[in-house]
Amino acid sequence: MGAGKNSTCQKRVRLPAPAQLIRSDLECNTRTNLPINHCAEMLTQILRSGVGVNLAFSLLEKTMKLTLHEVAQVLGAKNDISLYPDTALNKVEFDSRLITEGDLFVPLKGARDGHDFIPVAFENGCAVTLSEVSLDVPYILVEDCLAALQQLAAYYLEKTGVEVIAVTGSNGKTTTKDMIHDVLATTYKTYKTQGNYNNEIGLPYTVLHMPDDTEKLVLEMGQDHLGDIHLLSEIAKPSLSVITLFGEAHLEFFGSREEIAKGKLQIADGMAAGNKLLLPADPIADKLLPSHVELIRFGEQADLQVTSLVESKDSLTFTVNFMDGDIFLPVTGKYNATNAMVASYVGKTLGVPDEATKSALASLNLTRNRTEWKKAANGADILSDVYNANPTAMRLILETFSSIPANEGGKKIAVLADMKELGSQSVDLHNQMILSLSPDVLDTVIFYGQDIEGLAQLASQMFPLGKVYFFRKNEEEDQFEDLVKQVKEVLGAQDQILFKGSNSMNLGKVVEAIEK
Fold it and tell me: What CATH topology corresponds to 68-149?
């Protein structure tokens, strides 16, 4: 089993602005898990739709249908608001550096107290700020700024009457969200969660940043702890919800799949009686199911089924039991057929014509690094699935990669990194991946991380000598540069190479290195 040299571990991650449209040297907020430079991400999303730069910026700056006095009344301001004019507010920001003329600033407490940046917000044109203390500038006094942000988002959804479709799940929630958005956008003015804005800050921020003509809002909901999704569902009040999978994601915080399922099912807490909840036919949830919503199961022998499936290297063609004709997807992975089936059913339920659904799925544009084929600089084929990882997701992508025929004269290589947040079961769950690795299919396997070391040792006993490499990443050392070097050394022009690991393992940077 190969090894690498020591190098300094990077403890902080810097996020470059997408398409380098906006300079971003701002670090990720460790409390919210949200990229600070969200403006760049949303701008790039808009530009990808084909509009010009000027129009893209104008879309970013759409005015909310809220005024200063209205916000104060909704939040039960504890100070005299009559001192300030009833200004129309432009948008909400929690980063003072992104404040523009007429904005509402929300000072949140994270690694630093957002109240410290109120002067900067007003220098940048802030119209009014929320605050938990008295100030000498226009402010709305509240007990808790985060709770106020959430309350304002709930009010705004009620005021605008936008229909919310909510998506959660251990795997596939972002892909399914993207698919649902693209299907609905054929018929309705539709907005969706941008990036990973799926928590107690990101969701209300998304609500308050949706274009003012939005008809359907597709919201992704994430959970780290029990109760997270309950809160998000109570804010959003979805009319239709989807749970993609009851898996092992965040097992460290839940302890068991049963507790994970309990948390995911809280997506129904904000739903009205009779609304539809789509969920997998998994017995893990049978004793936990809510009784006030209509349950639609998907999977084998369930209400919704993929009835035929043909998979190629970079596409899927399949049929479903509630729609006539083939559905084509320009992505691989059998699990994506299930995700697309769910999106198709959501579209059908909400009145999207079948042909419009098929057209949207055939031209799908997914969030980057989710089962995405790319080309290395030397011509090799890269299958990048590095946005996140858990045992179910890793098994599925290895199954997909193994089923794809190798290129003529080429090898199949897998680069696997740690799956995070698996708690006390982490090492065992990593080791179980040995059942998904076969020397008859894979020529070389490269491992990177800490908890994955045991799996690397098991693989070294099964694969020929010199076909398994391990590079360490822990608090003491990070052999990342040696990992990149080894990948470049083993990768031939006719090869196929898979990358899979949790986002924090930075395999995306390895992909970038071999693309250059």
Answer: 3.40.1390
